[in-house]
Amino acid sequence: MPNRLADAASPYLRQHADNPVDWYEWGDEAFALARERGVPVFLSVGYASCHWCHVMAHESFEDDSVARALNEGFVSIKVDREERPDVDAVYMGAVQALTGHGGWPMSVFLTPEGEPFFGGTYWPRSDRQGMPGFLKVLEAVGTAWSTQRDEVVDSGRRLAAHLAQQQDLGAGEDGVDPQLADDAAELCVRAEDRRHGGFGSAPKFPQAMALDFLLAHALRTGDEGARDTAARALEAMARGGISDQVGGGFHRYSVDAAWAVPHFEKMLYDNALLLRAYLHGWQVTGAERFRRVAERTADYLLDGLRQPEGGFSSSTDADSEGEEGRYFVWPEAEFREVVAAAGEDPDRWAERFGVSPEGQLDGANVLHEAEPWPEGDPAFDAALARVRAALAARRATRVSPDLDDKVLTGWNALALGALAETGAALGRADLVRAAADCARFLRAELVVDGRLHHAWRRLHGARVPAFLEDVAGLAQALLVLWEADGDPAWFAWARDLADEAEERFADPDVPGTYWATAHDAERLVTRPKDLWDNATPAGPSTLVDVNLRLAALTGEGAYADRAERTLAAYAGRAAQAPTGYGELLRGLERRLSGPGEVAIVGPDRAATAPLSAVYFESWRPGAVLAVGAPEEPGVPLLADRPLVDGAAAAYVCRDFACDRPVTTPDELRALLAR
Predict the structure, then answer these.
(1) Helix/strand/coil for 259
(2) Residue 555 burial by CB count (10 A; 0-12/13-18/19+): exposed, middle or buried?
(3) Whole-angstrom distance, CA of residue 228 vs CA of residue 231
């Protein structure tokens, strides 16, 4: 019989609806019951595409004896970390403090007041390879609660106090030394894995924000080391198994250092951030490979994750038919059969895709570029397209991984911003339209009673008030979209969101820092802050970019002051661990490169389009673009910018001091080149 999670909106929670565990969703009801029964709370946090979450579910949560122990001795709560990143952040901090590491599934034991006193990540059902079995953990926690409750409760209170102290960044720098960008880039270059590209060893993550910072830094300074480090990582990922060579897009991370064998889930945020990085990689280096990867990634977002209403789903699973990667890998015989049926030479393409009898994963092959493919060869490109189409058609007959179709505002913001910028740069109007459709969907469905919300799912509507990452991320994306399509509504909404971030999330006691939750949000045992750029940009880092853009567009110094305070607050941390502050450092590059302002005025979009296209020929990390009619209401950068003899005109400015207006693409191109 299904448990109460059968009615949950989250696809991850609904995956556990048939467990014999008496699960509750996060909320007052569960904690009130724990207080009434005098038992601790077991909190399990994961997400729909998490492989080890599935493993623990099958081993333990579907097991009657485990369920009996949980139901008799605990109140059990299941949380989707993507739906409640605040809950995840608080208790992940506890697990890291207790064990020195974290991850998902996350398993935490709490007092009925929500204070954590013991936790970990994945536990097998029974003892295995030095890990205690989950049944043994439950027995030990239950015994401690029964016999040493006062000590356990005191431990929880002390840990909660410690977590609150961890949110204190301390006093920030007096200002931001421009040398920080040079030093951070140098540290990133030194941290590079020169053999395989990227940073660190196995498991290896894309680090798209750090790569974007290096590209922006190289563009401003001419630093070849920064440019080449970013380019080598982009090249290696494009060629590796982390890139879906058949369907486009990227998997979450590589389990090895060489990008060969991925962890197969696909996340919306990874693909949005990598789309942006590959677009900029092409613009900075001129490498056509990066442009093609950007287009394939954009097409994957539209074909694989876009919903009919205009929003984007969160992820696809790593598993299908109970096996990780089954949908994506190829036995040699099947690969050869498909290629031959397409009229192509199986030997040639087996060599190209690195296909062998032994494979890389239990006898199956993860397709990759064994050697770099030729550039600028139309015959090769046509044959590759035929092979990919045949492989995609065969793969479509398999059982596909599950789709987590909840829509998250912050992740959708990353996607719509990347699509809008890519569409403008590549002349792909369809990508700009998709971005605008997404923005309209978010405005229609995720704004309830004037307040932005975090999550939405069909038939369930908007859920959970927005977090800082949603407000800041959407503000940034709307400013990018406004540059691409010129709809002044996007500028107005972005400005409102930036002001909302300051009013409802800023910490007045620590200038430049922001809480992850609004001032009127649900109170947890501690109030979390976004302290670094993790898998997605931290809200404060995003706000640096937003506020610097708004300062240039409006001429209002208050926005620049906000950005300066945030840069100063995080400068010390960014200097020590630059790969963890890629988005913040990209914001610093905007400050050091700008402000550059380009205003294009004309009677309509048809008149301004040729001039706008010139602006998007290059990446301009320190510039902003305003396009509209002269004296467009609410856009100060367009004020006092008349047409020239009735023709569309471009004004190139710095600190609101402008060159003479120009009216032709060639004139604008020459002016921007200066």
Answers:
(1) coil
(2) middle
(3) 5
**Confidence at residue 261, expressed as pLDDT on a 0 to 100 scale:** 95
φ/ψ of residue 452, rounded to 5: -70, 145
Neighbouring C-alpha atoms within 13 Å toward the C-beta of 458: 9
Vertex 513: Cα angle to 508 and 519 (nearest 5): 55
Q: Which residues contact 522 (CB under 8 A, 6 or more apart)?
A: 86
Strand-strand pairing, 75-80 and 41-46: parallel
Q: Are the C-beta atoms of 244 and 297 separated by less than 8 Å?
A: no
**Which residue ranges make up each domain of the chain?**
4-166, 179-320+404-593, 328-397, 596-673
pLDDT in tens, 633-654: 788 899 889 999 999 999 999 8
Tokens in use for 247?
């369907």
Cα 76 to Cα 23: distance, rounded to the nearest angstrom: 5
Cβ neighbours for 239, distance < 8 A, ≥ 6 positions apart: 259, 368, 369, 372
DSSP string, 384-424: HHHHHHHHHHHHTTSPPPPEE--EEHHHHHHHHHHHHHHHH
| 554-579: average pLDDT | 95
CB atoms within 10 A of CB 407: 27
- Separation CA 636–CA 638 (nearest Å): 5
State how far the Cα of 7 lies from the Cα of 27, in Å rounded to an integer.
Answer: 15
Both tokens assigned to 585: 């450092």
Task: Please provide residue 127's backbone torsions phi and psi, each rounded to the nearest 5 degrees.
Answer: -50, 135
Q: What would the two tokens of residue 457 be?
A: 């799912």
Can you tell me the distance from the alpha carbon of 214 to that of 582, in angstroms, rounded to the nearest whole number? 9
- Judge whether 220 and 585 are in contact, CB under 8 Å: no
Q: What is the CA radius of gyration of the chain?
A: 26
* CB-CB contact of 516 with 86 (8 Å): yes
Residue 171 has pLDDT above 80, yes or no: no
If you ran DSSP here, which 8-state letter would residue 303 be given?
Answer: I
Torsion of CA 13, 401, 467, 595, to 10 degrees: 180
Q: Which residues, in sequence order, are CB contacts of 62 under 8 Å at separation 6+?
A: 18, 19, 20
Q: Give every CB contact of residue 191 below 8 A, 6+ residues apart in sequence.
A: 199, 200, 579
Fold of 4-166: Glutaredoxin (3.40.30)
pTM of the full structure: 0.95
Instruction: List 78's β-bridge partners, or say none.
Output: 44
SS3 category, 460: coil
Residue 171 φ/ψ region, left for φ over 0, alpha for ψ in the -120 to 50 degree band, beta for the rest: beta
Structure tokens of 43?
């909190």
Collapsed DSSP state (helix, strand, coil) of residue 599: strand
**Using CA of residue 628, residue 633, residue 636, residue 638, what is the dihedral sign?**
positive
Give CA–CA dist 652/657, Å, rounded. 8
Work out the percent of the chain whose per-residue pLDDT is above 70.
99
Distance CA 32, CA 91 (A): 19
Does the domain at 179-320+404-593 match CATH 1.50.10.10? Answer given as yes
Edge-to-edge order in the sheet of strand 649-654: 623-628, 596-601, 649-654, 657-658
Q: How far apart are CA 453 and CA 410, in angstroms?
A: 10
pLDDT tens digits along 238-295: 999 999 999 999 999 999 999 999 999 999 999 999 999 999 999 999 999 999 999 9
Sign of CA dihedral 55, 248, 84, 22: negative
